[in-house]
Design brief:
Distance between the termini: 67 Å
Order of helices and strands: EEHEEEEEHEEE
Strand content: 35-45%
Shape: globular
Strand order of the largest sheet: 2-6-5
Largest sheet: 3 strands, mixed
Number of helices: 2
Length: 135
């Protein structure tokens, strides 16, 4: 079970952080070395450690997906990019924190966790400033 999965339609690759790989106790021997350079959103980039093919289960559907393994510090445990989105024919919505796709005649809806919600109902104090027009 992997939590904190980011679905990103701006990413051209599925990303698997090396830290997630070690936490799940997946052997390094399953990584196929490659010479792929992955560009980040900040304009910088990182050499891929390699790629790995894994079975991904999003109930009730199983996907066989290739991931680029990167040795990076990120806030997510797994990034599903356009390869997964296209394979699932999914429609992700970052606004609503949901992804929908059809499988075997039924609609599958994957909801984001409430703790990841972008909206917060906390009350924000407002500071009023007097209008100082001068003389």
């Amino acid at each position: 079970m992997v939590t904190r999965v980011l679905v990103d339609n701006g990413s051209s690759a599925n990303i698997y952080p090396l830290s997630t790989l070690s936490k799940l106790k997946i052997e390094d021997e399953r990584i196929h070395k490659n010479s792929i350079f992955v560009w980040g959103f900040d304009g910088g980039g990182k050499d891929s450690v390699g790629d790995i093919v894994l079975e991904l289960t999003i109930r009730p559907v199983e996907f066989t997906m290739e991931f680029q393994v990167l040795d990076i510090a990120v806030s997510y445990n797994l990034l599903l990019g356009r390869p997964w989105i296209h394979a699932a024919k999914a429609v992700p919505s970052t606004l609503h924190q949901v992804a929908k796709f059809e499988w075997d005649g039924q609609e599958i809806i994957v909801h984001g966790e409430d703790s990841l919600c972008a909206r917060n109902n906390a009350i924000v104090p407002v500071i009023e400033v007097e209008d100082d027009q001068g003389p």
